[in-house]
Amino acid sequence: MNNQIKHAKGDRILLLTNNILLTIIVLAIVGPLLYVFLSSFLEPNAIIRKGLALSSSDWSLEGYKRLFTDDTIVRGFFNSLLYSTGFTIVTVLVCLFAGYTLSVDGLVGKKVFMIFFLFTMFFGGGLIPTYFVIRDLGMLNTIWAIILPGAVNVWFIILARTYFKAVPNELKEAARIDGASDLKIFFRIILPLSKPIIFVLALYAFIGQWNAYFDAMIYLDDRELHPLQLVLRSILIQNEVQPGMVADVEARNELMRISEMIRYSSIVIASLPLLIMYPFFQKYFEKGVMVGSLK
Amino acid sequence: MKKRMITSASALLLSGALLLTGCSSKSGGSESFSAKDYGLKDVTFPLEEKKTLKIMTSSSPLAPEDPNDKLIFQRLEDQTGVKIDWRNYTTDIFGEKRNLAIASGELPDAIFNAGFSDYELLKHAKDGVIVPVEDLIQYMPNLQAVLEKAPQYKAMMTAPDGHIYAFPWIEELGEGKESIHSLDAFPWINMEWLNKLGLDVPKTTEELKQVLLAFKTQDPNGNGEADEIPMSFIINDGGQDPHSLFGAFGLGDNWDFTVVTNVGEVKLTAADESYKKAISWLNDLYNEGLIDVEAFEHDWNTYLAKGRDKKYGLYFTWDKGNITGMGDDYDLLAPLKGPEGHQNVARTNGMGFDRSRLVVTSANKNLELTAKWIDQLYDPSQSVQNNWGTYGDEKQQNIFGMDEATKMLKHLPLEGTAPVELREKTSVGGPLAILDSYYGSVTTKPDDAAWRLNLMKEVMVPYMEADNIYPRVFFSLEDLDRLSVIETDLFAYIKRKRAEWIANGGVEKEWNEYLAELDRLGLQEWLDIKQKGYDRNQK
Questions:
Q1: End-to-end alpha carbon distance in chain A
Q2: Which fold has domain A65-292?
Q3: Is the pLDDT higher at B128 or at A253?
Q4: Residue that wins the pLDDT comparison between B203 and B13
Q5: CB-based contact B435:B150 (threshold 8 Å)
Q6: Pairwise CA distance, residues B487 & B469, whole Å
Q7: How far apart are CA A147 and CA A84, in angstroms?
Q8: Distance (Å) from the C-alpha of residue B24 to the closest C-alpha of chain A?
């Protein structure tokens, strides 16, 4: 490989520092992840006492065993999967439609529509009125209370609109001359060109919904419908010592041990789908996220 | 291909919308959240015809989702003929759900395990969300009996405006000075190390210093390393704080810095001359390297881990079983004699009393029925079961065995099951009263509590000078407002200076400045409110 052009000295220094910096950043990100991953296989008391000593006697699968035998967690996992997928499909579709429409030149009342959308970014109805609306629509205790209220995401619409604006007008004009209608242009010309933005929106939507618990907490009474994050939350919050429970002193330790044990394994389980998704979405992500730097 | 995908996706969306409209036509309309008026008078249980009350409640995620799956409530339903239609939420989301129900006007008949602060209680009473219940007590013979035997609780239940807004939870373990809450921070000393070094249990503050010095320098654990921690605590953390040693200098100290002298004067411990001397003594120990350097920052887990490794010579906690185990290697250190001959221990302001375990809402149309149902919970045997768990459950382990001859509930040994887990699954909490006189007739004392009560009586109680603790005074909204404003700054300042002085010294030099700052932060007004509240409560 000697025929490779040598870098100039300045460049080499730059590359070196660059590599060192990036390595540090990678370590800073991978370190905690690795810590959590390893801790999830360890006896919690051993972690507190010795840190990650990794001696063979401290290994334990008890955390995972507890998680997988607990049917509320398994159920919560599938609920979360359903909510996140459903929400992603709905919100991406809605935002693409809206984004495209708003990107079209010559749309009558474009400004009004935009203000209409933007208004909701700054002002909300508040929790109780929103609750009333959801209740009167009969969506309490249904999957729709999770999927529909957040489906129109103004930020997503702006992202999509910006992306569509960058598509050359000539393409649309050519299609129109060939006799295509607006709908046809959208589905046949624009969408095939929009993979990056679709994936970016889908990823944002999926992650957002996967990590959400508040809507579910407010709108879903039925524990069968609770998503994973809500189930985990109630398990982890249990270890808070209640005033007046002082007589249960020995129990406090036991509770802390259990929750400490479940904590790490549940983090691993809860972030698994996202970790699996990332590599597949990554190449679109790079392109699509640049859209955020809008004009 | 792509086109088909998109078409099917939009079809899905459309069918979703259709499904949604289908749903709304089904479940719309006004569902009632409280029971209708049954028009019952002079209720006697069991009712001839089953009636339903709608109650909101909270329970642990470990407990069954429907409280009616608990044997206690099944039995109660059979006894009374009142079926409870529960709206139950896990404790982590209960607060939001409860407030949502109140804000949206979806009021149940009552809220069980309501968990309101005094402030919320008064606020909701003012807004007419909950109703005063003192007139209902006439229907409640069991509660009347409790208040007759223990009249002190009546004052604590009553708001400054003279109304009672909630039914309380009362759990006594020992009475007066011998109550289990009398002292939270027990000092535990390492007997094994004392024996090894041939030392006596220290009786004065000076002897303690010599013992701690020996712990530090003479390698009592025999591993050749100076890894012993002569003394450890977690500063400002209730039972882990070293305040129980302060009594050797006079007044003593406790977690909320509030004591009542035997002439009924409310005092702030942290503004007392003896407090200065105690801090100065602790600073001396710190300078000698006798106090854990982590004592000002470590959390419970680290504290526990070091305790499990038996590294402490002297440490503080509620019950040694939690930290160093129930073995003989640690023993309770009796109150020390100070340089001026004081030998005292200040009592902790704690009691098994929770003001708002059940509130009745303004939506309730069956007050008498509700009151009589609640009264069942104050039946002695029922209270004991509601608090801890029940007997005779064939599906799971029992906390109690029922002695049929004496009708006494006897604690059974726990075989392997974590006590909290079992307790959460079987007990129900709520309003109840367990008086100290019940032990021996209605039930037995839990073992761990009995052991601690004994220690308290033998070692600590003889040195407790104060006859009274500061009780759970019910303050008015205005007072609560002022107290919270003052305490936010005042207590934060006291706690900060306390840690700072123990570690860095300077208490003597800064003392006058500190007293002036306390006054500036509202100490006099605070004392005034606290004193008035105390006097009102004692009347």
A1: 44
A2: MetI-like fold (1.10.3720)
A3: B128
A4: B203
A5: yes
A6: 19
A7: 8
A8: 4
Angle between helices A249-289 and B300-308 (to 10 degrees): 130
> Using only C-alpha atoms, what is the Rg of chain B?
28
A255 and B CB contact within 8 Å = yes
Phi, psi of A157 (to 5 degrees): -60, -40
Q: Which two tokens stand for residue A91?
A: 């919100």
Contacts of residue A247 in chain B, CB cutoff 8 Å?
Answer: 171, 173, 180, 446, 448-449
Minimal CA separation from A217 to chain B, in Å: 7
Query: DSSP states of A28-81 as a string?
Result: HHHHHHHHHHHHTTB-HHHHHHHSS---GGGB--HHHHHHHH-HHHHHHHHHHH
The encoded tokens of residue B288 equal 């000698």
- Distance of alpha carbon A124 from the chain centroid: 22
What does the alpha-carbon distance between residue B449 and residue B453 come to, in Å, rounded to a whole number? 6
The confidence band for A188, taking pLDDT boundaries of 50, 70 and 90, is: confident
Is residue B288 one of the residues assigned to a domain? yes
Question: B42: which 2 tokens?
Answer: 């002079």
Q: Is the pLDDT of residue A6 over 90?
A: no
Tell me: do B253 and B325 sit in the same domain: yes
Position A4 scores a pLDDT of: 64
A128 shares contact with chain B (CB less than 8 Å): yes
DSSP β-bridge partners for residue B403: B408
A53 at the B interface (CB within 8 A)? no
Tokens coding B76: 């109660």
Choose the most confident range, by mean pLDDT, from B37-46, B132-141, B385-394. Answer: B132-141
> Predicted ipTM?
0.70
Structural domain of B103: 51-173+352-447
| pLDDT number for residue A294 | 44
pLDDT of residue A45: 66
Q: Are residues B165 and B87 in the same domain?
A: yes
If contacts are CB pairs under 8 Å, which of residues 159-178 in chain A contact chain B? none
What stretch(es) of chain A map to CATH 1.10.3720.10? Answer: 65-292
Kind and range of the H or E run holding A198: helix A195-211
Q: What would the pLDDT profile of A20-56 be if each residue is shown by its tens digit?
A: 999 999 999 888 888 888 888 877 766 666 666 666 6
B-facing residues of A in 178-197 (CB < 8 A) are: 187-188, 191-192
Asked if A111 has any chain B CB less than 8 Å from its own CB, the reply is no
What is residue A247's predicted lDDT score, i.e. its pLDDT? 42
pLDDT tens track for B359-379? 999 999 999 999 999 999 999
Tokens coding B25: 């036509």
**Residue pLDDT, tens place only, A192-248:** 888 888 988 998 899 899 989 999 998 998 888 999 888 888 777 665 544 334 344
Reported pTM: 0.80
pLDDT of residue A242: 45
Beta bridge partners of B337: B204
Chain B CB contacts of A132 below 8 Å: 104
Judge residue A217's burial from the number of C-beta atoms within 10 Å of its C-beta, 0-12 exposed, 13-18 middle, 19 or more buried.
buried
Question: Is B165:B133 a contact under the CB 8 Å cutoff?
Answer: yes
Q: How far is CA B103 from CA A122, A215, B99, B110, in A?
A: 24, 17, 6, 15
CATH number of B298's domain: 3.40.190.10
DSSP summary character for residue B407: T
What total number of domains does chain B contain?
Answer: 2
Look up residue B66 and give its amino acid.
D
**Of B520, B353, B329, B328, which is closest to residue B432 (Cα–Cα)?**
B353
